[in-house]
Amino acid sequence: MFLWEAMKKTIYTLNVGGYSSEITALTYPLLEYYARKIEAEFYVIDTAGFPGWPITYEKLQIFELSKKREDDWIIYIDSDAVVHPETIDWTYFLPRDTVAHYGSDHAAVRWRYDEYFARDGRHISSCNWNAVASSWCRDLWQWGIFFLWLWRLVEIVGQNTWLMIMLYQEILLNLG
What we know:
Blueprint: E1 9-14, H1 21-37, E2 40-45, H2 62-68, E3 73-77, E4 100-101, E5 105-106, H3 107-110, H4 115-120, E6 124-125, E7 130-134, H5 139-157, H6 161-175
Parallel strand pairs: 1-2, 1-3
Antiparallel strand pairs: 3-7, 4-7, 5-6
């Protein structure tokens, strides 16, 4: 696809259960303006696709939605994010084989420290209030679904380590 050819872009946001209307009354007009500016559609995910799971996992619906909608570019921005009217179209600067997201949260805000955070020492955490990926990289949202499934399996099977190792090995063999 050439740069000057029209590309289908969608800005997704999450609002299952009517998240804070006082905030979205301020942020949605800015998100809608940004969508028009970059010639993207604005799509609010407002239905639970993973009932019983934490609400943030609903972002993982983007994988199937973006395939079904045939998006060339997928942009996710949280419902409470304020987008400056002069924000550039990130898709013009991002190679199609690359994912961008705001990735410099302080780790202590999101995680309980373990040996890996302690060893690393940078206190960096990745977050996903804003992410951009082309159709080539939409699996950014697919792998989350795989890990949700694996976590559910751990809950069902329990902590039987040998059984989990055998199941995990079988899963990897079937993926390959």
